[in-house]
Specification:
The longest helix is centred in the last third of the chain and has 39 residues. This protein is mostly helical and 228 residues long. The mean pLDDT is 83.
């Protein structure tokens, strides 16, 4: 995304909504995870993140699901601002796909794992759109005057690997993964990849917001010196 000279209000929307999405999602995950571990001691390496939204078994499922809903809405607003800020086709493709990611995150809060069929469909959309989003961001990094930083690029690459790994393990007949319910297991590859993708996407939002803030400051400084 190349930063044009426009009203900085939209740039600030991207910054604040990206950071808000990350903070809300991280807070909801941490609170629900702490409650889950205290209620029923489990290993994070065997617990799938979507289990935290199970109203039947997770003590603070409502906190987790509401955080997904709020984080998805913030992410959607950030991508909406990107769409109206950056006119080039690649940036707008990132905005559209990012909007789908944001809506799928919000829908996962509305349709938690208790609503299994809907949850499977929404989470599959999230997985596929997340892969496409980071692939587009990877391509955008090599565009002239791109605002994508090396940190955002690194996180996009990691997200691509995690998304591909999860897609390869997905049972397309039921749109779900093999359960990790064996109490003797201390490691579940599906759970680990899910946690990696979740945390990487949260950090990606933070780095995107901070990177955009850096470019806003640079552009403002440039314009001030140009006027002197």
């Amino acid at each position: 995304m190349s930063l044009p000279h426009r009203n900085y209000d939209l740039y600030l929307v991207i910054v604040f909504m990206s950071l808000a999405a990350a903070i809300i999602a991280a807070t909801g995950v941490v609170i629900a995870l702490i409650a889950e571990i205290q209620y029923m001691p489990v290993s994070v390496l065997t617990l799938r993140p979507d289990k935290l939204g199970d109203y039947m078994n997770s003590p603070l499922a409502i906190v987790f699901n509401l955080s997904l809903l709020a984080a998805g809405a913030c992410f959607f607003l950030a991508t909406l601002a990107i769409y109206f800020t950056f006119p080039d086709p690649l940036s707008r493709a990132i905005a559209v796909v990012g909007g789908i990611v944001g809506m799928s995150i919000a829908l996962m809060g509305i349709f938690p794992i208790n609503m299994l069929e809907w949850h499977r469909q929404v989470s599959t959309i999230y997985l596929l759109s997340s892969l496409l989003l980071h692939a587009l961001c990877f391509a955008d990094y090599f565009k002239p005057k791109s605002t994508m930083t090396k940190r955002v690029l690194s996180l996009s690459i990691l997200s691509i690997f995690m998304s591909v790994a999860l897609i390869s393990m997905l049972d397309w007949n039921v749109l779900d993964f093999v359960a990790c319910d064996d109490p003797d297991e201390h490691f579940c590859l599906v759970a680990v990849c899910m946690w990696m993708l979740t945390q990487t996407n949260i950090l990606w939002c933070v780095c995107l917001g901070l990177g955009m803030r850096k470019y806003i400051i640079a552009q403002q400084s440039f314009r001030q010196h140009a006027l002197v």
